Amino acid sequence: MERKTFDKILIANRGEIAVRVIKTAKKMGIKTVAIYSDADARSLHVILADEAVRVGPPPTNQSYLSVPAILNAIEETGAEAVHPGYGFLSENSHFVKSLDEAGVTFIGPGEKAMADLGDKIQSKIIAKNSGVNTIPGFDGVVKNTDHALEISHSIGYPVMIKASAGGGGKGMRIAWNDQEVIEGFKLASQESKSSFGDDRLLIEKYIDNPRHIEIQILADKFGNALYLPERECSIQRRNQKVIEEAPSVHLDPSTRKAMGEQAVSLVKHVGYVSAGTVEFLVDPERNFYFLEMNTRLQVEHPITEYITGIDLVEQMIRIAADQKLSMKQDDIKFKGWAVESRVYAEDPEKYLPSIGRLSKYIEPVSLTDKHEVRCDSGIVEGSEISIYYDPLICKLSTYGETRSEAIQNMERALDSYVIKGVTHNIPLLREVIGSSRFKSGKISTKFLAEEYPGGFKGHALKDESLFELASVASLVHAKRDVRNWCWRDNGEALSEKELNRNAPKNWNLWIKVHNNNGNVEIINVLVERRSTVLQHKDEYQVKVANHPPTIVNAQWPLESPLINAQLRIPNQSERFVTAQYLDPLPVGFRLQYMGTKFDITIHNQRQHELSHYMIEKPKKDLSKVILSPMPGSVVSIAVNVGDIVNEGVEVAVVEAMKMQNVLRASRVGKVKKINVKPGSSVAADEVMIEFEDEKDEKPFD
Amino acid sequence: MHKIGPFTRFLSRPSSVSRISPIISFNAKPIVKPVVTIQPRRYASGRTKEEETLARIEKLRAQAQLGGGHTRIETQHKKGKLTARERVELLLDSDSFNEYDTFVEHQCTDFGMDKNKVIGDGVVTGHGTINGRRVFVFSQDFTAFGGSLSKMHARKICKIMDKAMLVGAPVIGLNDSGGARIQEGVDSLAGYAEIFQRNVLSSGVVPQISLIMGPCAGGAVYSPALTDFTFMVRDTSYLFVTGPDVVKAVTNEDVTQEELGGANAHTVKSGVAHAAFENDIEAIQRIRDFTDFLPLSNREQAPRRYSDDSTDREDQSLNHIIPVDSTKAYDMREIISRLIDDGHFFEIMPDYAKNIVIGFARMAGKTVSIVGNQPLVSSGVLDINSSVKAARFVRFCDAFNIPIITLVDVPGFLPGTAQEHNGIIRHGAKLLYAYAEATVPKITIITRKAYGGAYDVMSSKHLRGDMNYSWPTGEIAVMGAKGAVEIIFRHVQDRTQSEHEYIDKFANPIPAAQRGFIDDIILPCVTRKRIIEDLAVLARKKLPEIYKKHDNCPL
């Protein structure tokens, strides 16, 4: 008999996590209330929820962070409990307090435990008192530079100076000697002051080459607490997690047990209830040190669910509904391996967020009944990635019996994940997942910095991958060319005759592709059509120097995004390549292969010969100015002189005929001059905003 | 039997040789043997007369391949330009070119021209196929007399234009000419006019495409201007009536060729050219793609090409594409790409009068034309330039049996002295006229605003629209609520209430549907399916023609 929890809960969040919570709530027979800002009025979480309440305009401080608006929504809908998701109000103890006062259950920890563990200095003291290994350091506020030096000497170098209130790498400095401590202290306190309005700093031992490994805990209101297997989140950029996995290759059973028991003792010590995560740094010798505790459902919880089969959201709801944990520590088993990739709308080379509408969006699916692919997303094709919120597109998780199987599934899932309309980080994810170092498990939080010291530049094709790409490109070209011959001039339906027309059977192609190692690769491919009729399964033979003749066929409805190609060397071997057909180009097309986009120029023999006469033109920069598209009046200017704006960011709004036109930066740039003011009228093509020349701009950071 | 061994190397293949002289036959086995055997006359070389003639022909043909000679070809290449023949090779399917008038030479004797001849006289003409479909082509050869137009040069062009009319196939002109052959005087001018006359006679009979691949100045510009589409190659092509030197002399303006008549000037400012491409190879490839959309002549229906895109595909994301806030803009091209086959849209004049979007696409494989107001630019308002841009396009499609799909989101005609004084009335009337006279299938979808006279113009039911739909977001009214209420309730102080009333009444498609002015209100996601069904229904549409010599379209 199912024990009753709540009739109706409100999810004080948006996007994928709101969708995630709604799914479990539905499974448990609980009605759901979504909240939304104006920007999210048609979002997936709003559509999926039983009820939805508007909480304000797009900016988060007026919507998802507005406690009065949310309390109002609770009252309006009669929700009995609130799940906060992660981010927004999930770790805001004032919000918990307001809910308590309103007699509404918060699905999460109590106010006090949240407040105590939320403060970095405080939580470290609590951890130490609970018998948790902490990083050697000073348990208090550092007074001044001399004090900082004194502490540093007692701990021993290297040391890390960081903001007490900080997060996300802001106000953080590493020092290897006295000089660096003096400088680091000054800079960190300034940064901390400007970022968090709080210049309290702390100093601790810096762990070199650490791994980030965390323990998921569950605790009920009856003093029961248990730990679940660990997650490793070492692949990070700028202290933001990128790829996570569970379990960790680094841990042995005894370390796992020791970490888990310490986490449970911390939880019990502060009387923490609900799901939570204790983060540790683990050094190469498996010494582990408490980092911090996250008093909420973690972003990367799906991988734990994958290997344990436990629905963490369900557990949170049950705990909040005063139910006892139904399992004991000994019941916790785990099986297989799970990997999660955070798919973001951001440029993986510059780490800049990208915004826009998802013009094409196809999520990868599981091919077996093991449900080896899980997509936690809150968007659909046509959704808008806006400037107001986190640019997370999806948490893509895959499962396997073994780590290598999980990784292989992730490779396939990333290859077949179609996202168009915004720049995304799949190129980086695919590169890391496919790298031999990641596969070997020898990772640390420095992985990205060490592997891509000059920044990530996209996949560099090597001989074999270049051949694969050329084979797929040849097939695509040949199929399109044959299609061009299948026509009928009276406009009537095509008959067998038109499909059997005397289309080309042989091609001598020159494939040009800009490789990301800086080379321009030109490959000559001889292609021969092996079948007579245009069909999905037609076969082509490709011949490239130094490669055996290979038969290529593909599941590729013409011009569709996904190409599942088979490359076969008769009587020898066969392999499968998943690539994506993104856009046609004037002479060729754009393919995505190994996660990276490649512009492919395809010339026939004659075009190739004559292409030598074509003059390479310097790229023209037409984007240095923002012109008024029409006569009208300026409603607003969103930038100031000296601002550095990203591509696609709103710079101004012009109104004409009672229509507002948002003008956006067409490239990254620094604002040099603003020629208009809000309220001033502009003529068509009037220069409104000027950017500095690219060469004058200072690089980011 | 003739010995042809060593002489065939300049012959592209036997079939083209037989066209040169019917006397020479290369059939391996002559069907009828001559009864009387005449002893062949032998020349000093020891060859027969036939052999000698053949050798001469081969020599001439070989010379013709070189146009103005190696040095000039090299100069042409150094500019990043291909030669006339190389361009034809790239334009047509391999081995499909059949050349006409290879041996033509000019007949001018003045100014020492009798000693200065180039075989072919600066233009390569003939026919061939593009993806198996017949087209006629001329390609001016800048290496021969700078591609200048002589009497014979013009006559060659006229010949293929006449042939194209005769058989019903498009004419593609690759222009690269310094202008008139001054040495020929009025003969050259006559040549231009002969071409102009044929451009006009062919107009509406066979599609005519001009690709400007070098200079095109003076009188020469009017041939491309009379054709249906003019494309340019960036940085290497120019179009102007008078060049920078004359401009300087007459108006004292300093201007470069590029500024005066380059691709940018004509695709962005003047609207003379319909698109520009990066270089010769890209331009020619794009012309091949473009030709695939066109019917061969006005006798043919729009062509259908194989497509894998599903005809009953429902695109749910279209349902949310129109912003909730009706003052917000969106990109009409995104709607277009979601409706058409494979999302492939060949946009015409993409950089000119961007407040209206025009171009070719396919639905269920068959060519259609798209005209859409573009809310992203000036709210999609109709002004002089956008009216003229769309009007000419609509007329082309009507002439060549290409169905017209119109997507409407238009707030009206652009007000202001600039527009009024430059004749928005006259120019706006062109679009109105074009839609009203068009007899091809006309399908209209109102996506949002359809205000005022602009509603009437944009392929409304009243202009014989065959199928007129509105999305639920449609607003069909004389004007926006605020303006309307200010007029109706002029003397009322607080008009908020009346404004809401007006919005309730007109900011939706129901009143128009109640009057039958729109045939149905459809969900955006089913639009593709409905259009494809309608196109099938309308495939046999026929309207009785009223006799007239010709119409009197406002110009």
From TrEMBL, chain A:
<dbReference type="InterPro" id="IPR000089">
    <property type="entry name" value="Biotin_lipoyl"/>
</dbReference>
<dbReference type="Pfam" id="PF00364">
    <property type="entry name" value="Biotin_lipoyl"/>
</dbReference>
<dbReference type="InterPro" id="IPR005481">
    <property type="entry name" value="BC-like_N"/>
</dbReference>
<protein>
    <submittedName>
        <fullName>Carbamoyl-phosphate synthase L chain, ATP binding domain-containing protein</fullName>
    </submittedName>
</protein>
<keyword id="KW-0067">ATP-binding</keyword>
<dbReference type="InterPro" id="IPR005479">
    <property type="entry name" value="CPAse_ATP-bd"/>
</dbReference>
<dbReference type="Pfam" id="PF00289">
    <property type="entry name" value="Biotin_carb_N"/>
</dbReference>
<feature type="domain" description="Biotin carboxylation">
    <location>
        <begin position="5"/>
        <end position="453"/>
    </location>
</feature>
<keyword id="KW-0092">Biotin</keyword>
<dbReference type="GO" id="GO:0005524">
    <property type="term" value="F:ATP binding"/>
</dbReference>
<dbReference type="InterPro" id="IPR011764">
    <property type="entry name" value="Biotin_carboxylation_dom"/>
</dbReference>
<dbReference type="GO" id="GO:0004658">
    <property type="term" value="F:propionyl-CoA carboxylase activity"/>
</dbReference>
<keyword id="KW-0547">Nucleotide-binding</keyword>
<dbReference type="InterPro" id="IPR050856">
    <property type="entry name" value="Biotin_carboxylase_complex"/>
</dbReference>
<dbReference type="Pfam" id="PF02785">
    <property type="entry name" value="Biotin_carb_C"/>
</dbReference>
<dbReference type="GO" id="GO:0006629">
    <property type="term" value="P:lipid metabolic process"/>
</dbReference>
<dbReference type="Pfam" id="PF02786">
    <property type="entry name" value="CPSase_L_D2"/>
</dbReference>
<keyword id="KW-0443">Lipid metabolism</keyword>
<keyword id="KW-0479">Metal-binding</keyword>
<dbReference type="Pfam" id="PF18140">
    <property type="entry name" value="PCC_BT"/>
</dbReference>
<feature type="domain" description="Lipoyl-binding">
    <location>
        <begin position="612"/>
        <end position="692"/>
    </location>
</feature>
<dbReference type="InterPro" id="IPR011054">
    <property type="entry name" value="Rudment_hybrid_motif"/>
</dbReference>
UniProtKB/TrEMBL annotation, chain B:
<comment type="subunit">
    <text>The holoenzyme is a dodecamer composed of 6 PCCA/alpha subunits and 6 PCCB/beta subunits.</text>
</comment>
<comment type="similarity">
    <text>Belongs to the AccD/PCCB family.</text>
</comment>
<dbReference type="InterPro" id="IPR034733">
    <property type="entry name" value="AcCoA_carboxyl_beta"/>
</dbReference>
<dbReference type="GO" id="GO:0005739">
    <property type="term" value="C:mitochondrion"/>
</dbReference>
<protein>
    <recommendedName>
        <fullName>Propionyl-CoA carboxylase beta chain, mitochondrial</fullName>
        <ecNumber>6.4.1.3</ecNumber>
    </recommendedName>
</protein>
<dbReference type="Pfam" id="PF01039">
    <property type="entry name" value="Carboxyl_trans"/>
</dbReference>
<dbReference type="InterPro" id="IPR011763">
    <property type="entry name" value="COA_CT_C"/>
</dbReference>
<dbReference type="InterPro" id="IPR029045">
    <property type="entry name" value="ClpP/crotonase-like_dom_sf"/>
</dbReference>
<feature type="domain" description="CoA carboxyltransferase N-terminal">
    <location>
        <begin position="50"/>
        <end position="306"/>
    </location>
</feature>
<dbReference type="InterPro" id="IPR051047">
    <property type="entry name" value="AccD/PCCB"/>
</dbReference>
<comment type="pathway">
    <text>Metabolic intermediate metabolism; propanoyl-CoA degradation; succinyl-CoA from propanoyl-CoA: step 1/3.</text>
</comment>
<dbReference type="GO" id="GO:0004658">
    <property type="term" value="F:propionyl-CoA carboxylase activity"/>
</dbReference>
<feature type="domain" description="CoA carboxyltransferase C-terminal">
    <location>
        <begin position="310"/>
        <end position="549"/>
    </location>
</feature>
<dbReference type="GO" id="GO:0009062">
    <property type="term" value="P:fatty acid catabolic process"/>
</dbReference>
<dbReference type="InterPro" id="IPR011762">
    <property type="entry name" value="COA_CT_N"/>
</dbReference>
